[in-house]
Amino acid sequence: MPRFFLSADRLNESPVIITGEDHLHMSRSLRLREGDAVTVCDGEGNDHLCKILRFSKEETELSVIAVSANESEMPHRVTLFQAIPKGEKIDYCIQKAVECGVFEIVFFESDRTVVRLEGRETDKKIARWQKIAESAAKQSGRGRIPLIRIASFESLLKEAGEHSLSFFCHTAEGQRSLKTLLREKKPSGALSFFVGPEGGFSEEETQAALDAGIEPVSLGRRILRSETAAHFILACLAYETEL
Ligand code: SAM
């Protein structure tokens, strides 16, 4: 069933009014008809089963038939701290992480990243990334749209300290495996993890993460591309905590 997001305030109105891109999507792209059903999620974990009452040129009117709890969210709030990848890899990274259940994605510049996150274009980029997250959240039946933001590596080390568990993916030999870490330190509530850039974390960054008490982990025998690592981890977390 087609899925949309709308704030809880607007979903409490009667009728519920859909405008803009979602209206066009319902009326033109999906060619829905009056009487058809759609799911509208409030982004806070509640799915509203709605019936289309009427289309006009500017808007779609809906009535809410039933409300139920969305059951697609992971049991933990998992935040991805990702060294910013290049070009289209960013889009791929966001889309797949959202499908896999990430709660939030924070991009950071690192010593070995090529992309720089500054200047006037950044706000536009974040808005575009947020759209990719929204579309992946709709497609995968999520109960919320993960937030995309940027922050400095240093500030994220502090933020990570507020989570029940935070680890960074480290390719050096002799690291504890992700499986061992998850079984030893059973996460509860929020958790987060750092993925480095293609060139890996610098020695200074590795030391700063260790000093901040972030756990280094190995993802196994193969070296994954930076944009693959997050999805691999989210799949492992899903296996350990919800499948
Ligand atoms: N030569 C780089 C190095 O040794 O760090 C390779 C970096 S890898 C392409 C990109 C990032 O993905 C790494 O910084 C790390 O965070 C994560 N990663 C990829 N494969 C990993 C593995 N097997 N174990 C731990 N982390 C891994």
What is bound: which ligands? Answer: S-adenosylmethionine
Number of strands: 11
Mean pLDDT over the full residue set: 94
- Major sheet: arrangement of strands: 8-7-6-10-9-11
DSSP helical segment count: 8
Topology pattern, helix = H, strand = E: EHEHEEEEHEHEHEHEHEH
Mass-distribution shape = elongated
Helix content estimate: 25-40%
What fraction of the residues are assigned to beta strands by DSSP?
25-35%
Rg value: 20 Å
Structural class: alpha/beta
Distance between the termini: 24 Å
What profile does the largest beta sheet have? 6 strands, parallel
Which stretches of 5+ consecutive residues score pLDDT under 50? none
Plain-language structure description:
The protein has helices spanning 8-11, 20-29, 88-99, 121-139, 153-160, 178-184, 203-211, 226-241, and strands at residues 3-5, 16-18, 37-41, 46-55, 60-69, 77-83, 104-108, 147-150, 165-169, 190-195, 215-217. It has 243 residues and is an alpha/beta fold. Helix 3 packs parallel to helix 4 (121-139). S-adenosylmethionine (SAM) is lined by residues 169-171, 195-196, 198, 200-201, 218-220, 222-226, 229. S-adenosylmethionine (SAM) binds at residues 169-171, 195-196, 198, 200-201, 218-220, 222-226, 229.
